[in-house]
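Appendix C. Worked example: Inhibitor of growth protein
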Amino acid sequence: MSMLNHTNHAAVEALCAGTYLESYLDTMESLPDDLQRNVTMLRELDIQAKEYLQELEQHSAMFLQGSSTEGGASKKKSYLCTQRALVKCQEIGDEKLALLTVIAEHIENRTRMLEQYRENLEPGSTREQEREETVVRKEPKQVEPEKVEKTGTKRQRRSKPSETQQEETKEEKDKGTGTKKKKKRKVVKKDREDSPLEFAIDPNEPTYCLCQQVSYGEMIGCDNMECKIEWFHFNCVGLTNKPKGKWYCPTCRGDRPNVKRTDK
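Step 2, the predicted output written as structure tokens:
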């Protein structure tokens, strides 16, 4: 199986490499034509700039020579020619900068296209898969500790009512009454409609019953000493009043309402 996966992966890589090479050649094939036009224009501008520089040197020399021997007309003419040559050189320089900007943009666009081809044509987009796998792997690691902490907290909560319930069950058998149980059951006199989840619950408060909620309303204790849950809300076990005699929870009694299960 691993050899088959390796073969498929190699085939995909070869296909992607061939596709990328074809795109690379297509992209680079037209690049010289675009650059050649701009480079040719740059060379023409260089030639013009050299001509104006030569003209500038000549008129500058004539201006300096005519300043001492000839009149003001020749000096003024040389000055105007020099000024015109300087303006032309500046214009040519601006055009060359614009062409260089265009050349740089061409190269940048082609480079960006090649980068995009490379990212899209990588086999299976390995970078995206690695990111997704990293996210998927991190999510359970972030959730699992919370679940473990919550589960551990619930186990600690159950241990407290378990010890208290055993003491109260013994006292109840001795007295033959459910007075103490009744006091413990009426921790919060609320109907089931007032869900305990709507209130701010102390994380250290123990949980009871099949619903695994905190104590509220009237509660009844299972008379089975080995019952793991021990305390139940009236509403969760279908009671409205405390039954007479011993009472066993649905888990302990099975299908018989008032008989303790023999498999316990």
